[in-house]
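does this look right to u?? magnesium ion version
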Amino acid sequence: MSTFLISCKSNIKPVEKDTYLMGTIVQLKVYGGNAEKATQKALERIGDIENKMSVNMETSEITKLNDKAGKSGQKLSRDTYFVIDEAVKYSKLTEGAFDLSIEPIVKLWGIGTDKERVPSKNEIEEKLKLVNYKDIILDSKNSTVKLKRTGQAIDLGGIAKGYTADEVKKVLINNKISSALINLGGNVYAVGSKSDGTSWSIGVQNPLDTRGKYLGNLRVTDKSVVTSGNYERYFIVDGKRYHHIFDPKDGYPSENGIISTTIVSDKSIDGDVLSTSTYVLGLTKGLKLVESIKGVEAIFITSDKKVYVTSGLKDSFNLTDKEFIYEKR
Ligand code: FAD
Ligand code: MG
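got this back:
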C-alpha cells in the first residue's frame, strides 16, 4: 500500500469504490458515463480471480493444486494456468530469486497472521527443501499443473495482484472507460490520462516514514506502478524487523540494503513480479534485470537513503524529500 494518487483535479466526478479484497484495500476511481456499471464489473472480476488464486480459500484452484502435491495434477482455469506459467517463466529468468513455490516458507513465518514468529534455523532448512520452482510440472495441452513432491505448495502473493490489475483494466476498457485509477493495495494502474487530459501523479511512499508520507512523485499516463517494501507486512522481535519478502536461497526475509522497489511498466503482472524479484536480487542485479527488459523502469531505495532511478524516469520522477540522495542511472 505504498503508491497512491496524490492529486486529481477535475470537475468530472468519478465513481469511487473502496473495498477489502485479496487481503488488502482495493480502491477504484473510474471516470466516464459508464463508470458505475464498469466499476461493478471490475469488482466482480477481482472477486473471481481471488476465488481462483487465493491460498486462504479452501475451494480455490491453488488450494486444490497444493493439496494434491506429490499425488496428481490439478486442472486449472485459463486465468490460473496463465499466472502460474508467467510465474514459472520469471522464476527461471531470476534464477529463483522469485520462486512461486515459496509457500512453505511463507506459511512457516506466518507474517501478517496471528501465527507470526521467528522459526528455528532447522525448521527453515526443512521447509526450504520443498522450495524449488523446477518441481512444478506444467501441461499446457490439458491446462494442468502438478507439484512433484508432497508438502510443496504455490503462493501467488507476489504476482496475482499485478495480473488482477491488468484484468481490471481490460474490464474497464471493454466497458468504454478511458480514464481510471486502480489501486490494489499499492499495486497501481493509472489507466489512460486524467479526465482533463493531463498525466496522473502517483506518490512514492517514503519507506522509512509512516504510510502516506511520500518521498517523491511520478507522472505517468497509462502505466502500472507497483511497489514492494519492507514496511508492507512485518513484525519486530528484539528490535529486528522481519518482513514478508523472502530470499529463497536461505528462507529468511531478504536483507541486502534495498528497502523499497518500484516498477513502472505497461503490464502490471510484470511490475508485480519484478518488484518482488528485484527486492530479492538487490541493487546491482536488480538494476541489471530491469535494464534488460524493454519498456520497464524502476526506482530502488536503499537503507542509506539513496534513490536509484532508471533513465526512462528521469523526466517523470520528482524527488521531494531532501533527506534522500538522488542517484540517476
Ligand atoms: P509483493 O512484494 O508483491 O509480494 C510479496 C508476497 O509474495 C509475499 O507476501 C509472499 O506471498 C510472496 N513471496 C515472498 N517472497 C517471495 C519470493 N522470493 N518469490 C515469490 N513470491 C514471494 N492476505 C491476507 O492477509 N488475507 C487474505 O485472505 C489474502 N488473500 C489473498 C488472495 C490473493 C489472490 C492474493 C494475490 C493475495 C492475498 N493476500 C491475502 C495477500 C498476500 O498474502 C500477500 O501478502 C500480498 O499479495 C503481498 O503483496 P505485496 O504487493 O505487498 O508484496
Ligand atoms: Mg510484487
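The two ends are 26 Å apart (CA to CA). idk if thats expected tbh
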